[in-house]
Design brief:
The protein has about 230 residues and is an alpha+beta fold. The protein contains four helices and eleven strands; from the N terminus they run ββββαββαβββββαα. It has one domain: Nucleoside Triphosphate Pyrophosphohydrolase (Alpha-Beta Complex). The strands form two sheets. Strands 3, 4, 5, 6, 7, 8, 9, 10 and 11 form a nine-stranded mixed sheet that branches. A two-stranded antiparallel sheet has the order 1-2. β8 and β9 form a beta hairpin.
Length: about 230
């Protein structure tokens, strides 16, 4: 049973777009002019390039899964995602709902100085404990295929998928995420869900789960476990 207070909306208290620098804040926008240099020494016309990055360039996404009497189940987390919530429906290509919570895997960015596979494991363990309240030793996390870019045309972030088997226990199919999170108000109102793997993939295909890294992780997990979809 859910017990945390549900979030109804994200309210803008100030729009700092016109006054904020592009190289400050959580995301950094780098704005360049560039040209292509060809192998014969000639160059193209100049053109603009925008690149979005963060102080660290890598993130982890955690595919936590469990063996149950009814099959493999995976853990997802639905949390506040302002970029989706603030989409302009009047210019969207197709009719779409109003977004607030987006369902995806537990995920998080690496901290400055975290490098190497052991650091990825530690970050994955920290995010799973922080966002789902599950404490798992870092060494149990395994890599789930090669890392990848989500939007390589503009975003420099690379995502590393890690998988870990956990105990399903007696948790309900849906429950409120731990209230503390990382202390940010964006952690409020999050919901954790257990889904059967096949049904979770169906939810991705039907648009109920609209996060690309989650669908990719689920398909890689199925292949890793030898499950034919």
């Amino acid at each position: 049973m859910l017990c945390a207070m549900r979030i109804q909306a994200i309210e803008i208290t100030e729009d700092r777009t016109a006054s904020a620098r592009c190289d400050e804040g959580f995301l950094r926008l780098k704005r360049y002019r560039a040209r292509n240099r060809r192998e014969d020494g000639s160059t193209s016309a100049e053109y603009p390039i925008d690149v979005i990055d963060r102080p660290t360039l890598d993130a982890v996404a955690v595919c936590a899964w469990s063996r149950t009497p009814t099959g493999i189940q995976i853990l997802t987390r639905a949390g506040l995602r302002p970029a989706a919530a603030f989409r302009r429906k009047d210019v969207a290509a197709l009719p779409e709902p109003t977004y607030l919570l987006i369902e995806e895997l537990v995920a998080g960015v690496l901290e400055p100085g975290e490098r190497g596979f052991a650091a990825l494991q530690k970050r994955a363990a920290a995010e799973l404990e922080e966002e789902a309240g599950m404490r798992v030793p870092p060494e149990r996390f395994t890599v789930l295929g090669a890392p990848f870019f989500m939007l390589p045309g503009i975003v420099s972030e690379k995502i590393h998928l890690l998988a870990v088997e956990v105990e399903r226990g007696t948790a309900p199919a849906e429950w409120a995420a731990p209230g503390e999170g990382d202390g940010s108000p964006l952690e409020e109102g999050a919901v954790l869900r257990w889904r059967e793997l096949g049904l979770a993939l169906h939810a991705c295909e039907e648009g109920e789960i609209e996060d690309a890294k989650t669908e990719l992780a689920l398909r890689r997990l199925a292949r890793h476990l030898g499950i034919r979809l």
